[in-house]
Amino acid sequence: MEIDSRSRILSTARELFHSRSYADVGVKEICDSARVQKGSFYHFFPSKRDLALAVIDDMADEWAHGFVAEAFDRELPPVERLDYLIDAAYYWQKAAKDIEGRMPGCLFGNLALEVSTRDDVLRAKLTAVFNKTRDQIRETLDDAVATLAIEPLDSEKTATAMLAFLEGVILLAKTRNDPEVVRIVGPAIKTLRIETTH
Amino acid sequence: MEIDSRSRILSTARELFHSRSYADVGVKEICDSARVQKGSFYHFFPSKRDLALAVIDDMADEWAHGFVAEAFDRELPPVERLDYLIDAAYYWQKAAKDIEGRMPGCLFGNLALEVSTRDDVLRAKLTAVFNKTRDQIRETLDDAVATLAIEPLDSEKTATAMLAFLEGVILLAKTRNDPEVVRIVGPAIKTLRIETTH
DNA sequence: GCTTGACTAGACTGACCGGTCAATTATACT
DNA sequence: AGTATAATTGACCGGTCAGTCTAGTCAAGC
Fold first, then answer.
1. Is residue B197 within 8 Å of residue B157, measured between CB atoms?
2. Strand D proximal residues, A:24-63, Cβ < 7 Å
3. Average pLDDT across chain A, whole number
4. Is B118's CB less than 7 Å from nucleic acid strand D?
5. CB < 8 Å to B116, chain A
6. What is the pTM of this model?
7. d(C-alpha A126, C-alpha A22), whole Å
8. CA quadruple B13, B15, B16, B20: dihedral positive or negative?
9. Higher pLDDT, B35 or B79
10. Do B160 and A185 touch (CB under 8 A)?
11. How far B101 CA sits from the closest chain A CA (Å)?
């Protein structure tokens, strides 16, 4: 009758995990919200953990083809891409807070801190997502160096630092439940630099 | 008979919350590890949540009088204090990983992401801890400016950015379960700058 | 018409959750 | 010594957890 139970479970779980947490959201609640019965859930997903794996994949895809793809549009001048990244993070968090009253933060960062001491498979998956984003930042930096927009630097390490900064800013903003932290402090991402070691 | 049940509960809970998570560690497990009965637990703490509040206070105290106090020793040249901060974070995480096999990350950061969408009181307490640390970094920056070690900047915003970066680096390192991330990327904290707005 | 297999329904399981409570023991003060 | 109070014990509670299981629906292929 319903169009697609599996994808409904998936997107519902993603929303709930994002706005609360993995541990805090039970299978029953996901089923209720997705208007699906327990039996159907376990028909599509062997376990809650496997659902989490699927959610990360799902989100990573949308992330990659969504605003990250836009932010890292190679038509844009490299340095602008970093501003775009911060802007996107800001507006996203702000919109979520305006609607739900709470800043959800970054799903990947949230999950990373929650599960990475308990589940190495989930941890590896999240590491891969982070690495992918870092690589996009690195490309941006390489472009910026190539176009002489910035001085040469260690693009991989600097990209890692920038990703860490982005996650840290979102963490702090979420703790204060105030997206303005992203807008005000975020742009400092451009000042981060790690020199190449010879 | 036993020396101090309350403090035993407190330190046990701190360790368990740090190495796993708030949600993942139950009251029973805390009691077992602290060799205390359920009833004694609820004699000292009205609820698990109140224990979390006490754990944050406890940790914040030790944090403030421990290596943070050392790192922010005003005898040290200001810029060195930032290096000391990164070093301390690195060695702490590395030691924990060598012993337990896992990087626990920052207790405050972990808790912040886990509970701040659910509990505003805990969130406020964690915000206060972060603000205190940010203020210590700000003092450091003000000292650095005063001694002409660095160019003038917006010390409060820059300090916020630095704290965010520290938390982000620890988050990323924890996700990779690799403290080296802190050592390699951490020192970039000194390159962060937010100019004063006139 | 019959079979097959994907999908749904929802009661049920055993473990575990945070928390309660009455009874007991240890400690401290008068 | 007597008494109040602090600390401790461990059985117990209702509820919820992830996950299981059986029964059944339904559409496609033969």
1. no
2. 25-29, 38-39, 42, 46-49
3. 93
4. no
5. 174-175, 177
6. 0.94
7. 14
8. positive
9. B35
10. yes
11. 10
